Amino acid sequence: MSGPGEPRTPVLTIAKNGPYLAEQLPALTGVDGSTETPKPRTALHRCGQSGRKPYCDGTHAKVGFTDEKKPDRVPDHRDTYAGKGITIFDNRGICSHAGHCSDNLATVFRGGVEPWIDPDGATVARIIEVVRMCPSGALSYAVDGLEHRDQEREPAVRVTPHGPYRLERRRRTCGRREPGRRVGRAPDAVPVRTFEEQAVL
Hints:
Shape: elongated
Number of domains: 2
Order of helices and strands: EEEEEHEEHHEEEEE
Helix content: under 10%
Distance between the termini: 10 Å
Radius of gyration: 18 Å
Mean pLDDT: 76
Oligomer: single chain
Largest sheet: 4 strands, antiparallel
Structural class: mainly beta
Strand order of the largest sheet: 5-2-1-12
């Protein structure tokens, strides 16, 4: 969190059966690419029926919106794909489906093929470049047994057409010496399974 005299750290709170409550968010990017600076505390709708999208107008209470997880939801589980020079980690449960991986490197991220990730399908440098495009934290990589999550982005929320919000944040480098070991949620993911929880963006 922020220290005395420092700018306040952006924080996202997920209200049970209600909106996302964003505090000190420096930027909100719309579907058309325009960017605005929201109020210090902003409510972003989750029910899909607000008349002021992307802002909440209270409609969730009228329509009985619930944020209970669907039983057929993609599980929060991380898979490991070990190659000769790089290991790629992928968690479908937190993927925002922005498509940067498959659009930019189809020889590695191969739709309709199992396994869908081929860690030897491109150079290590190119794979790292594309993994760093991942906005959700679903993808990360390890080289020589050390895992990297080292993207640097300014905190922001981007609104996607008919889809989820893309949350972007500064990321810390996390080193793990056991790249094959399953670990929990990537630290950059929004913790949507625990409501009323805060995520530092």
